[in-house]
Amino acid sequence: MRSAEEMTLNMLMKRECYRQTGTCTGGLCVGWNAQNVMWAVTDDLDKEFGTDYHERLKKWILHSQQNSLVVAGALSDAKGDRSKSPSKQVNPDSNVHLVEKREGGIVVRGAKVMICGAAAANEIFIMSGSDYREEDKDFAIAFVVPRDINGLTLVECRHPSDERELADGFDSPVETGITQAYLLFDDVFVPNERVFLAGEYKYSGNIICYFTANYRSCIGACVTEQGDVMIGAGVNMARVNGLSAKTFKDKYVHMAVLNETTFGMGVGAITMGWQHPVGVWFANDLMAHVNKVHVATLPYEVKRTLQDISGGIVETGCFPSCEDFNNETYGQYVQDCIKAGSCSADSRARAARFAEWLTIGAGVPGCMHGGGSLDGVKLVIRGATPMEEYAVMARKLAGIEEEILEPQG
Amino acid sequence: MRSAEEMTLNMLMKRECYRQTGTCTGGLCVGWNAQNVMWAVTDDLDKEFGTDYHERLKKWILHSQQNSLVVAGALSDAKGDRSKSPSKQVNPDSNVHLVEKREGGIVVRGAKVMICGAAAANEIFIMSGSDYREEDKDFAIAFVVPRDINGLTLVECRHPSDERELADGFDSPVETGITQAYLLFDDVFVPNERVFLAGEYKYSGNIICYFTANYRSCIGACVTEQGDVMIGAGVNMARVNGLSAKTFKDKYVHMAVLNETTFGMGVGAITMGWQHPVGVWFANDLMAHVNKVHVATLPYEVKRTLQDISGGIVETGCFPSCEDFNNETYGQYVQDCIKAGSCSADSRARAARFAEWLTIGAGVPGCMHGGGSLDGVKLVIRGATPMEEYAVMARKLAGIEEEILEPQG
Amino acid sequence: MRSAEEMTLNMLMKRECYRQTGTCTGGLCVGWNAQNVMWAVTDDLDKEFGTDYHERLKKWILHSQQNSLVVAGALSDAKGDRSKSPSKQVNPDSNVHLVEKREGGIVVRGAKVMICGAAAANEIFIMSGSDYREEDKDFAIAFVVPRDINGLTLVECRHPSDERELADGFDSPVETGITQAYLLFDDVFVPNERVFLAGEYKYSGNIICYFTANYRSCIGACVTEQGDVMIGAGVNMARVNGLSAKTFKDKYVHMAVLNETTFGMGVGAITMGWQHPVGVWFANDLMAHVNKVHVATLPYEVKRTLQDISGGIVETGCFPSCEDFNNETYGQYVQDCIKAGSCSADSRARAARFAEWLTIGAGVPGCMHGGGSLDGVKLVIRGATPMEEYAVMARKLAGIEEEILEPQG
Amino acid sequence: MRSAEEMTLNMLMKRECYRQTGTCTGGLCVGWNAQNVMWAVTDDLDKEFGTDYHERLKKWILHSQQNSLVVAGALSDAKGDRSKSPSKQVNPDSNVHLVEKREGGIVVRGAKVMICGAAAANEIFIMSGSDYREEDKDFAIAFVVPRDINGLTLVECRHPSDERELADGFDSPVETGITQAYLLFDDVFVPNERVFLAGEYKYSGNIICYFTANYRSCIGACVTEQGDVMIGAGVNMARVNGLSAKTFKDKYVHMAVLNETTFGMGVGAITMGWQHPVGVWFANDLMAHVNKVHVATLPYEVKRTLQDISGGIVETGCFPSCEDFNNETYGQYVQDCIKAGSCSADSRARAARFAEWLTIGAGVPGCMHGGGSLDGVKLVIRGATPMEEYAVMARKLAGIEEEILEPQG
Question: The whole model's pTM is what?
Fold first, then answer.
C-alpha cells in the first residue's frame, strides 16, 4: 500500500467482502497489515543494524503471492500478569519468545491468543505485541510459519451461540462462519528465511505504532458493511412483520449515520496519513484511533436499533426452533402463529433468526476489544492530542498574558 | 396491592429475587399482576353488567394461595397481520378467543406467544391483549387454566446460546435458566369458576391500561438488580485480569447511575399513582411508561460498559471451551495462558463466561420488547403528555397574546 | 417536612412555581432546606453537647413564619485553593468563619458565593459548606441574618445575556428575572438567638449529607417544569414556523421522557428515604445523587432538542432586534420577512426570543453545577454503591468459590 | 478547487483561521463555495442553453482576485410560508427574485436572511436557495453585488450576549466578533456581467446539491478548531481552579474524539468525492451530510464537557462583573474570593469569561441550523442510502428466496 488511494480502495474491498460473505475475517486483515508494517520496520532495522530482513520478507511475500497463500496475522500475546513485563512473568510462555538461535533458524515458544482466521489460513504471520526494552529483547520477534507446522497447536475458541451453527434450517441462518483460536507454540523451529525480527528490540514499538494506525483506520470498513446489512435486515423485518418502512425511517437514517461514520472517519485518517521512506503509507495516528473509538462503540447502537425495529421475535429470545416449526403434530399451528404479513412463515422465521444472529448471536463482531481495547486506544488519543498547544491558543484568544501552569503536588 | 408502600416493597422483593437466582421470572410477574388487574376490572364489570366475576376471582385466588400455586400470566397474542383486528385475521387463532359457551364453562382456541415462566408454573392466567370493540368481543376473555390441561400445547422457545446451558463446567456458568414458550390452545374447555371475562369487551382497554402501568413501573426492579450483578461481574473481571478497581471507578459509577434510574423512576411512578375504588393501587401512567423507555434502553449501555471493563476474553467471543481447558495434552498450556493475576485460571474462566452470559449469552434479558415494545410505549407517553397545556403556559410566559393554532392542511 | 408525602407535595409545588413565574428560585429552596436540615442537626448537637440550638431555631422559624419572611440559604464558600483546608488558606476569608465569640453573639467574616435569590430575600440563612475537623472548627457555623445587616455586601453577578433583560419589547421576553450574588461578610455581628452552630464541628458533615440528599432529590421538580415549558415553546415554534406538530412528535416525546425522569427519580429518592429521630424526612442518599446526575446532564439534551425544533431563527443567533423590527423605514420589510405562517410577525418574534432565552439566554438554568458539581456528586454515588457486595453476589451466581481480591500494589 | 487534495488543504486553512481569530466566518465560506458551485453550474447552463455565464463568472473572479475582494455568500431566503412555493407566497419578497430584465442588466427584489459576514465583505454573492420548477423560474437567479449597492439594506442581527461585546475588560473576552444580517433587496439593478443565472431554473437543484456537498463536508474544520479551543479553555480552567489535569484526562479525550470526528469525516467525504467535467471537485453527498449531522450535534456535548470541567464560575452564570471586580471599596474582596490557585484573580476571571463566551455567550456557533437544518440533512441521508439494496443483500445472506415487498396500504 503505497498511497492513500490504494488504502482507500482496500477499504472499499473490505466492505464488499463482508457484503458477499457476512463474515469479517479480521485475522486475514491482520495478516495483510503485518506484511505492510514489516515492510517498513525491516527497512528501519536493516538501515541501522545491517541485517537483511527486508530482502527475506520480499522473497517470502513473492512466494506467498505466487502461491496465492491465505495469511493470517497474530499480534496479541496471552500476556499473563499485566503489571509485569514478559521477562518477569511466572510463566515465560505468556508471550511468544525466542528460545534459541540455531544455525539455520530460530526456536520459538509461547502463546498468541484470540487469533482470528488462523484455521482458515495457509500461513500465520507472527509479530511481537508490544514496545520492548533490552531486558525483553527475546520477545521482539517476527516470523511466518505454515499453519500446520510441527509444535504449533491451534485451540479453536467458543463464541456465543456457536452451537447454533450446527443446527438445521433457519436456526443456523448464515452459511459462513468465523474461526478464532489460541495458538500454542511448543519449541517450533523457524528457518531464517522466514524470520524478520529476532531480538533487535529497538523498533518493536514501531510495529505497534504502524500496525495500529493502519488497522484501526481500515477496520471501519467491515463495521460499516455489517451495519449496512443490519439496515437491510431491519427493512426486511419491518416488512415480514407487516409494517411500513415509513414507521422506521428515522431509525434507518440513524443507523446510516452511525455506519458511514466509521467508514468516513477511516478514509479521513488515511487521507491525512504519511508515507514511510520505504514507500508504505500509514494513516494519521490520532484520527485512526478516534475511528477505533467509534468502531468500539457505535455498533452497539446500530444493533440496539435493529432490535428496536425487529420486535420481540428477535430480541426477547422467545422464538421456536426450526424443529418445532416443522413438527408433524403442531408445526402447522406454530407456522400459522408466525405468519404476520403477506410473506411466508418461513421467510419471517429466517429474517428473524438472521437479525438475532447479527445482534446477539454468532454473527456479532467483537468490535469493542477486537483490534485493541478501548482504554488503550484512548491512551493513544491522549498522547496524540496537543493539549498544551490548545491551552496556549485559548489563552491567547482570551487575552491572558500570565503563564498558566499545572498545579504543583 | 393496596398502597404505594406495598408495591414498593414488591419492587424490593423482585430485586432480591434476581439477586438470589440470577433469573428474571417475567412470566410470574405477569401472573401476579394479572390477579391485581383483574381484581379491579372484574369489579368494573360486575358493577355494570351484574356479573359475578369478582367473586369467582376471589375464590380462585384463595385456592391458589392456600395451595401455594405458581402462576404465570399470558397477555401477548400471536396477532398475525398487525394492520387487521382479530376478527379480520385470515387465521382466527392468531389471537386467543371464545369458541363456544357451554353450560358449565367456555371453549377457547388460539395462541399466546413469548410467555415466560409457563413451563415452571402450576397455572397459567390468560388475559385478552388489547382494547377490543363489539366486532372483536369474542377476543375479550380472561381465565386461568392448569398448565397441563388437555388441548394446551407449550412449545418451548430457543434463545441465544441456549445449548450452552447443557454444556459442562464453566461453559454453562449459571445453574438456573429461563423458560419461554408459545401456548397453543386447541379447543380447551375452561369451567366457569375459572373464567373472569367472556365477551364483555367494554373494559378490555382497562386490562391493558392497568396492567401496563403496574408492570412497567415495577419492571425496573429486576433490571436494576441485573445491572448490580453486572457491576459485581465487572469488579470480578477487573480483579481476575489483574487490574485495579481504580482504573474503572468511573465506569462502575456510570453503571450504578443507569441501574438506579430504572428502580428510582419505578418507585416514583408508583408513589404518584392512584387507588382503584375496589382497593388496588395503580402506578402513574405517564411515569410508568417513561420508566419502560429507560428499561428498554439503559441496560444496553450497562452491558456495553461491562464488556468494556471485561476485556477481549469476554467480548470477542474468543475463549476456549471448558473441554479444551481440561484437555489432557494441551489443557495445562491453555490454563497457563488464561491465568492473569493472583487468581486461579479456573476463577478467571468462570468470571469470563459469566460476564459473557450476562452480556451476550443466555442471561441477557429481553428488556427492549419484553413487557411491550418501545414504540408502543412512546405512543402512550405522547398521549399522556399535555402538550397543548404546555404550549399555553409557554405562550403566557413569553407574553404572546395571540392564539397560536396548529397549521391547517 | 416530616414524611415522604409532604416532600412529594413540595416537589409538586416547586413545579407549579416555575410554571407560574418562569423563574427558578434556587436560593429560596436552599433557605427552606436549610431550616429542615438544621432542625435535625441542632437536635444531634443538643443531645451530645447540651446546647440549646434547636430551641433557638424553633423560635426563629416561628418568627419567620409569622412575619412571612422570604429566606434565602447560602452554603457555598469561595473556597480559595481547593487543595487546602479553610484554616490553611492564604486568605482566611475564602470561607465564612467565626472571628470572635462575644457576650450576646458572634462576629463572622468571609465570603459565600453564587448565592441565588439573596437580593430578593428578607433574611439569609448561612450554613457551613463542608465536613470539618478540629483544626477548622471556626468554619463550622450556622446562623441567619437580615439581608441588609451592617457589614454584609451583596455583589450581584452577571449572567449570559443579562443586558437583554433591560431591552425593550420582545428582546426581553420574560418579565421575571433571576438574582445571584457574592455575599461578603466583613465582621458582621450575629446575636446568639440567630446562631445555630458555632464551632461544634462534629456534625458539620451531617449538614452536607442531609442537605444534599433533600436538595438533590427535589431539584428535579424545577428542572422538569423548565423542560415542560420547553416542550410548550417547541410546540409554539413549530406552529409559528408554519409546520405541523406531527413532524416533531418524536422530539416532544423525547423531551417528555427526559423531563419526567428528573421528577420521577426525585420522588423515588424521597420515597426510599428515612425519618430522622427529630421528625424530619431525608431522601435516599444514593438515589438523590443519581437524580442530580440526571439534573446535571439531561437538560442539555432538552435544550438541544428545542433548538432542533425551533430552527435557525432561534439557534443561529441571527434575528433582528425589536428596534429594527419597529424601524420606520425598513421595519415593515423586516416584519414581512419574519412572518412564516398564519400567526403575526410579532408572535413569531416573541416565540423565537423566548426559545432563545430558554436555551442560550438569561433563562438557562445552571443545572450542571448548581446544587453541587457533577464530579462531587459521582463521588457520593461511588461511596454509596456497595460494589464489594455486588462482587460477592456475582461470584456466587457464577459458581466461583475462590475469594477474588483486589490486586496488590 | 480541482481535487481532493486542494479541498483538504482548504479544511486545514479553515482550522488555522479559527485558531488565529476565534471567529468562524461562515458567510465568507459561503462566498468561496458559491464561486466553486457556480463555476460548475454555469458550465452546465452554457452547454445546454448557449449562455455565456461561465465566461462572465471567470471575468468577475479574476477581478475579485486581483483586487483581493472579500466576498460573502448568501443562500437562505426568508421563505415565508414553508408549505407554499415562492411564487405562491402572499409576500413575493419572501424570496429574492427577478423583477425585470433590462438592456444591460436585471432588477431584483426580496430578502436573504441569516447571512454571516456580509457587513465585513466587499461583495455579496447571491444564489437561489432551492430547486425550482417552471412556475418559480424568476427565483432561479445568481449574481454578485457590492455590499454598498443602492437599494440593498443590511439589518444587522442580535445574538446571545451581544451587548457583552461592548463591555469593558474581561466581560468582553474576545476582540473579534461576528456579523450576521438580513439582506433586504429593494429593486436593485445588477449589470449583466455580474449575473450568472437569470431564470434558467433547470439546474437550480444542482446549485443546492453541489453547494451542500462541499459546504457540509468542509464545515467540520471550523467546528473542530472551536472544539480544540474548548479543550484548551478546559485545561486553563482546571489550572486556574487549582486542579490537576489528571482529574479531567478522560474528559479531554472525550472532547478530542468528538472534535476530530467532524474533521476526519469531512476529509473522508471529500476523498470519496467526484470531479465535475469543468474541473471542480465535489464531496460525496451521503458522507458530507452524515458529517453535517455530527456538526449539528457533537459540539453540544463538547460545550457541556467544558462546562463540566470549568465549574460553577462558568456555568451557573454567577460571576461578578469586571466593574465590581475593580470596584474601589469591595473590589479587592471580590478578587480575593476569585483567586483559587497560584494564578492571579485576573487570569481566573478572564479564563472563566472566555469559557462562558464559548459555551453560552456570543462565541457559541450556530452549528445546528447554520449550513442547513438537521431534519433537511437527514432527508438527504435517507435519499442517499440504498436501503433496497441493503435489504436484498441481507436477504441473500439470510438465505431468503422469496421476494419481500413493502406492505400495501
Answer: 0.96
